[in-house]
Specification:
There is one protein chain. The protein is an all-alpha fold and about 500 residues long. About 75% of the residues lie in helices and about 0% in strands. Strands 1-2 form a two-stranded parallel ribbon. The termini are far apart.
């Protein structure tokens, strides 16, 4: 680890701690803790959403996937980008108008039932745990590679930092860490993309022509089929990515940090621009790494290709750019895991403790204490799981988290907003059928069982052939919601009329 890396690393740590110090002074109530008091502007929240969404998997993983597999690597960029159209057009505004702190609050606006809130909290916690394990294990491995320190030390550094942000600064500190990360990430990506484009004489056709001969795949590099050889599996993965974002609790929670639906829409528009530009630029990162770093060097540094972007930065800009990109990768990891801790803690402290155990009668002080204890508990539990999972291949957990979000959360969110007949039985059936089908199918998939030792968690033949079960579990979630509703007699048309007005106008009555 060179001196520049250490200095940039310390600057980021110091800057985020100063932010947390000032945020802690402003975090006095549960509203401050969970939603920054609803005081963020649209563009601030948009940048924070982008910072929360663009994980290390996006920055390092997609650049590496494009460098190694060309068009197939770009599939992830397409899926993540299109996903925001679903959020923008179907979910953002009604969610902001109906909810308060969590997804369960939004659903509870229509169904005042503990079992629905409990099911929503369970789904949120499941998604957060899967996403968090993948992020922390990935963070440990990447920081180990970038900074040359032991895995357990890397996990502890990230774990302690995310705990400090959330425990003391709540959503305010988390949001500003995410905003800074988004800005740094875009600056780093734009600089590398510019340098790559310059090497190709600012000519797109020249770039595409050159990469055809840059890898061992030849002209096939620009065609689909190098990485994803089973079309049904590719469709299933894309379904999880496109629909899952609209059900991810740590992303949806961000819409409660602005004061009205107009700012929620501005947030999505800002986030979509930032996320869209970033994913387009991943083509330059991937192609640049393939052409100027080389397939063999990328694979030698990391078999999954995760070092492609830092190596490209080093090849184009020397030690300083490499150090800057490494520091940005560290900030990227911190921003995402902090958002996940906050989301998991809100499900425990607000939904389960505050609304189910205390029946909504907990004082503000009790809620704040519960939120902080829950944050600490989620952090410690996640760190322990990440330390135990060091040698496991957990990369599939990110796409599984998207799959669970699309299967269990999205059907209930859409039915709650748009289906008049939808009822409590339908909501519970949709959530449990979507959640359980995704978990059961993935437990029998090639991610868990493989005849090749070391390729999955267990050695054996998979019973379910697809790596991502979204193509089955997402329809099951919607079908469960439909059948649960029409096979039970409950319905409250008047309540739906109130919810519809509130979802479209934000009017909450007297």
């Amino acid at each position: 680890m060179n001196l520049t890396v250490i200095v940039l690393f310390l600057i980021i740590v110091l800057a985020t701690l100063i932010i947390t110090y000032y945020a802690a002074k402003r975090t006095q109530t549960t509203g401050d803790f969970y939603t920054a008091g609803g005081g963020l502007t649209g563009w601030q929240n948009g940048l924070a959403i982008a910072g929360d969404y663009l994980s290390a998997a996006s920055f390092l993983g997609i650049a590496g996937a494009i460098a190694l597999y060309g068009f197939d690597g770009f599939f992830y960029s397409i899926g993540f980008l299109i996903a925001y159209l679903v959020v923008m057009f179907l979910v953002a505004e009604p969610l902001r108008n109906l909810g308060k702190y969590t997804i369960a609050d939004m659903i509870n606006a229509r169904f005042d039932a503990k079992k629905v809130r409990g099911a929503a909290a369970l789904s949120t916690i499941t998604i957060v745990i899967f996403y968090m394990i993948a992020q922390l294990v990935g963070a440990g491995a990447l920081i180990q590679l970038l900074f040359g320190i032991d895995y357990w030390i890397a996990v502890l550094i990230v774990g302690v930092m995310m705990t400090i942000y959330v425990l003391f600064g709540g959503m305010t500190a988390t949001s500003w860490v995410q905003i800074i990360k988004a800005v740094l990430l875009m600056i780093g990506t734009l600089i590398i993309a510019f340098l790559v484009f310059q090497r190709f004489d600012f000519n797109i056709m020249h770039m595409f022509s050159e990469v055809k001969t840059a890898t061992s795949h030849g002209a096939d590099y620009l065609n689909p089929g190098l990485q994803y050889t089973v079309p049904l599996d590719t469709i299933s993965l894309m379904l999880a990515l496109v629909l899952g974002t609209a059900g991810l609790p740590h992303i949806l929670m961000r819409f409660f940090t602005v004061k009205n639906a107009k700012m929620a829409r501005t947030s999505v528009v800002t986030a979509t621009w930032v996320v869209g530009i970033f994913y387009i630029l991943t083509v330059f990162l991937g192609f640049g790494a393939a052409a100027f770093v080389g397939e063999s060097q990328i694979l030698a540094a990391n078999p999954a290709g995760n070092m492609a972007a830092p190596l490209l930065a080093e090849a184009l800009g020397g030690d300083f750019l490499f150090s800057f990109v490494s520091a940005v990768a560290f900030a990227t990891i911190l921003a995402v895991v902090a958002g996940l801790v906050l989301s998991g803690a809100s499900a425990f402290a607000h939904d389960i403790y505050g609304q189910i155990i205390k029946k909504g009668k907990a004082s503000d002080r009790q809620q704040m204490l519960a939120a902080r204890y829950a944050s600490l508990g989620v952090s410690v539990f996640s760190i322990l799981l990440a330390l135990m999972a060091q040698t496991m291949n957990v990369a599939f957990l990110v796409s599984l988290a998207f799959c669970v979000a699309a299967s269990a959360n999205l059907p209930v969110i859409l039915y709650t907003i748009y289906w008049r007949r939808f009822n409590t039985t339908g909501a519970i059936t949709a959530m449990f059928l979507g959640l359980l089908s995704a978990l059961i199918l993935v437990s029998m998939s090639p991610n868990v069982f493989s005849p090749t030792e070391g390729a999955a968690i267990f050695v054996g033949d998979p019973i379910f052939p697809l790596t991502n079960p979204a193509i089955i579990s997402v329809p099951l979630g919607f079908i469960g919601g439909y059948l649960g509703t029409i096979l039970s007699k409950d319905q409250d048309i008047e309540r739906y009329a109130e919810v519809k007005v509130r979802a479209n106008t934000g009017y909450r009555g007297s």
